[in-house]
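Workshop exercise sheet. Pairs work together: one partner reads the sequence aloud, the other fills in the structure field after running the prediction. Swap roles for the next sheet.
Pair: D.N. / O.F.
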Amino acid sequence: MKILLTGATGYIGKRLLPLLLQQGYDVVCCVRDRKRFYYPQGLEEKLQVIEVDFLDPKTLENIPLDIDAVYYLIHSMSGSAANYDELESLSAHYFIEKINETNAKQVIYLSGIVNDKSLSKHLASRKAVEDILKTAMAATTTLRAGIIVGSGSASFEIMRDLVHKLPFMITPKWLNTKCQPIAISDVLEFLTRSLLNPAAYNESFDIGGTDILTYKEMLLEFARAKNLKRCIYTVPVMTPKLSSYWLYFVTSTSFKLASALVSSMKVEVICKDSRINSLLGITPMGYKEALARALTKINEDAIISSWKDSLVSGQFKGNVSSYLKIPKKHCFIDRRKREIIDRQYTISRIWSIGGETGWYYADWLWGLRGFIDKIFGGVGTRRGRTHKNQIHAGDALDFWRVLYANKEKGKLILYAEMKLPGQAWLEFKIINNTLYQAATFKPDGFMGKIYWYAVLPFHGFIFNRMIEKLVR
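Structure field:
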């Protein structure tokens, strides 16, 4: 059986892929940028990777005709375009036109719970896509979920930031909105058991855990799980825009994602039809158990996927491959090199850079730069990194995006996603017994040049001490 997996580099797609392969399916992964797609070696026989942009019908020709089923996992929670809902509908139309040409028997779509009469723009867009997918010649199965509790999910990371950073919270009134959270493992169970199951054909199901809670209750339970005492007070005066800024400055979320979440969190997301539980023989877990599992994964540094690695978490535009060639002309370059004492030690230091480890020297300056970036609408340094010592192309790393990571060659290239009057790259490469470090900046006009000379005095000791710490 051949399964088409869209959204293969997303939070759900990265977790669903190994499960499908373990169950013996051949999987065709749709990605916009092949260089950003990482998968464990040894799976090539059961895996095919194709580049597809669902807003470009020409690229849909890459989809093979002999597929048996499709997972449609394309969402735009924080799309950069104001008309993202129109683009999502257009993508769905192009998708259906192509799928109708294939042998696909089923399309499985992961949507949001839409039982409230008044829907946010985000949830309304999900519902519109669902209606479009139902026009397919193949049977459609829609699974509607609310808050997903799992290590690396956007909702979970936002709750973690709030609980860790704020002992005392004055919060907007939408924290009293009720929802029915579901564990990521249960979501994956519903997705896999629905596959090519005639009982799920042409049906829409709500999926959720056993608990109905307010967001305030979820935060307080999170605090108890971490043995933290937290006080939360809700006030009616905080507008949606103020609420979005509150989330943006306190958590690792982007402002656009914060805005989408705030508008959605005012809507109750509670399951009305849970017959799929008995239909598929699944007993979802409660919030406490889901929370405990997620925290265990974090403690074990075993996070499979994170929303932070999605391109919408930052300022990155285009494909990773478009930025791989670092320019030389009309650029300012800070070059440094040091002889290596222990190659493996230096590589492990490079591969652990950023996040909790920091930048080996003057971390307070890196933090200050991140704070300034956040003030001007950038990503700041709060994204951190998904794994403590693993890096793959496409990953987020503080206010950088990983373009290239080859541990055997000892080469790492980062691209700056901070707000800059230009473009910036940071490269590390080991040749023979020497580590070469280069910070490249391509200024955008006169202001770019002013910026470079303004930060040049700091580069002198920051980059010099950083390379020293990497080799010794």
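Discussion prompt: The chain has a mean pLDDT of 89. What would you look at next?
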